[in-house]
Design a protein that fits this description.
Helix content: over 70%
Strand content: 5-15%
Strand order of the largest sheet: 1-2
Structural class: mainly alpha
């Protein structure tokens, strides 16, 4: 780590930067005061993270948000008890030491990453936080020779281990089974609207719409490199077009379909992937080997689309198969006929 300090030289009326480096301390080298200070700052950070989770979930999942608010209050109570102990033993001044100052100490994800976490992932992250904290307090208690300090650290280790029970108590108060089912269903619906639906539309467009031009060029020229270049251009162009169209078509405010940027990326990337699937085989120099491989890839793509429709969009499998596979076969046949004409 590099720290920079600014020194003012009165005689020369100049500012001179002074730089020096310092290595992170090992946990085993920390004094008991530093261990307490580290525990205090960790509890502060965890409370902020839980409140960040609560703020992230408050609009769509109020019951889960209430649980994380309750967990943040628990961390506040731990911090207060630690500060009281520090005041009794070492006075009012708490050393500034944080997780990033200690080698091997468990780290937390940046709070801004919360925006990208699902409800299930947030719950999982919270459980991991409690396990990490339990291990820390257990190790810290084992190193302490002061009776009151050792007792408090041991109590906090037990409290962190018991947070699962606390979470269950909070869930009983705020998140009954029906509410949890509703929140889980809402999260699944949001995932489908933001990622699956635009991605599926892109995959269908990329897989089906590029069939005709790619196979038309393939059978017209029987030149694999030219066919690959046409397929690459068609796939990338379609991906860019679909991505911008999806992002610009709906800002998500009224429809609730989520971020237009996320939807645009999902649609654009899957469109490109759908087209490239049967363009890449034409990197094979032999025309018929490349074409047979591309046809097999198309078969897999179309069945994958039917499976996604059945799994996420609740479309009956055989109806999805009829729509996608038959439609794709017609487009493929059109490309072959045009290219062979």
């Amino acid at each position: 780590m590099v720290y920079a300090f600014i020194l003012w030289n009165d005689s020369k009326n100049q500012v001179a930067p002074v730089r020096f480096t310092t290595q992170r301390k090992r946990f085993s080298d920390l004094s008991e005061q530093e261990v307490l200070a580290l525990a205090i700052s960790s509890e502060e950070d965890d409370a902020r993270i839980y409140r960040g989770y609560a703020e992230r979930l408050r609009k769509d999942y109020p019951a889960s948000a209430a649980i994380f608010e309750g967990m943040a209050l628990e961390e506040d109570d731990h911090r207060k008890r630690l500060i009281d102990l520090h005041r009794d033993r070492f006075g009012e001044t708490i050393p500034l030491i944080r997780r990033e100052h200690v080698s091997g100490y468990y780290a937390r994800k940046p709070v801004w990453l919360v925006e990208n976490l699902s409800l299930a992932r947030i719950r999982s992250e919270a459980e991991a936080m409690e396990r990490d904290a339990e291990r820390f307090y257990t190790a810290a208690a084992a190193r302490s020779s002061h009776a009151a300090t050792r007792k408090l650290l041991g109590d906090l280790a037990a409290a962190e281990a018991g947070h699962e029970a606390k979470a269950e108590t909070l869930e009983a108060a705020h998140l009954d089974p029906d509410t949890r089912t509703q929140e889980d269903d809402k999260e699944r619906r949001q995932f489908i609207l933001t990622y699956v639906q635009p991605g599926l539309a892109g995959l269908m467009d990329g897989s089906v719409s590029t069939l005709a031009p790619i196979f038309a060029v393939a059978f017209a020229t029987q030149d694999t490199w030219t066919t690959f270049l046409v397929g690459l251009a068609a796939s990338v162009g379609a991906g860019i077009s679909m991505g911008f169209t999806e992002a610009a078509s709906d800002d998500g405010e009224l429809s609730g379909r989520g971020s237009p940027i996320k939807r645009g990326f999902a649609s654009g990337i899957m469109t490109t992937v759908g087209g490239l699937g049967h363009a890449l085989p034409y990197l094979i120099p032999d025309f018929w080997t490349a074409t047979i491989t591309a046809i097999l890839v198309v078969f897999v793509e179309l069945w994958a689309i039917a499976w996604i429709q059945n799994k996420y969009m609740d479309t009956p499998f055989w109806r999805a198969t009829l729509q996608v596979v038959v439609g794709g076969a017609l487009v493929f046949a059109a490309g072959v006929l045009i290219g062979s004409g």
